[in-house]
Design brief:
Helices cover 40% and strands 17% of the residues. It contains seven helices and six strands. Strands 1, 2, 3, 4, 5 and 6 form a six-stranded mixed beta sheet that branches.
Length: 229
């Protein structure tokens, strides 16, 4: 698809229908929630194939700032002072397998904590068994008390050990960082090209759909007893 391969809609291959028709189907699936429904059903199937319950009990939250193309409107982009990036920020909640549970795209100027205040309530409403979320130091502060009081979630911050310099794989946090790396394999996601943030979220789900499709094709066809996790 154009959104995962990185080409423009107008550059649709000749063996596809005319690009306005293809885009119309994409927009309809985006607006009616079909993209989300397809993604979530595939995620449940992957988790079942791994012997997990479709309902996760734990997740990992993080964010990723990416540069925005000139097509991105000024009111939906911002400047991430920490990363020195003018663009958008992807707030991601992944399960312990690295699969996408929830995504929110905002201007890059939105802090991790503020993004989580929107992302986590939606996730808590969708996943009744969700009880614990791991995060990095960007989520410290009143957010931990707020999630416990309002959502019934334990937000556990995984900190870097004191005195450690350079790259270090940290427990739990590496899972969602790997998820971001998976997304960047889709050329369309190296930058944000979309005029609308909900289109960006749909493109992220399409990228994960492609990944899960390959994973499902590689799974042996055998019944699996779900377990917690």
């Amino acid at each position: 698809m154009s959104d995962t391969d990185g080409i423009k809609w107008r550059a649709m291959p000749a063996d596809f229908p005319p690009w306005p028709r293809v885009y119309a189907f994409f927009a309809r699936w985006r607006d009616t929630g079909r993209v989300t429904e397809l993604h979530d059903r595939m995620r449940d199937a992957v988790r079942a194939g791994e012997g997990r319950s479709p309902e996760p009990s734990a997740g990992i939250v993080d964010s990723q700032s990416v540069k925005a193309d000139a097509t991105v409107t000024l009111d939906s982009r911002g400047f991430d002072a920490g990363k020195k990036i003018n663009g958008r920020k992807r707030h991601l909640l992944a399960d312990t397998l690295g699969l996408l549970l929830a995504v929110l795209v905002t201007p890059a100027s939105v802090t991790d904590r503020d993004g989580a205040r929107t992302l986590l309530p939606a996730a808590a409403g969708s996943f009744r068994r969700l009880a614990r979320v791991w995060a990095d130091g960007g989520y410290t502060g009143h957010l931990t008390d707020w999630t416990a009081q309002h959502l019934g979630l334990v937000l556990e911050v995984v900190r870097r050990p004191d005195g450690v310099q350079g790259f270090r794989v940290l427990p739990r946090r590496w899972v969602v960082e790997r998820s971001f790396a998976w997304l960047l394999r889709s050329r369309r996601l190296v930058r944000d090209y979309e005029r609308r943030t909900d289109t960006s979220e749909a493109v992220i789900r399409w990228s994960m759909i492609a990944l899960m499709n390959r994973r499902l094709a590689a799974q042996p066809h055998r019944p699996a007893a779900p377990s917690a996790g």
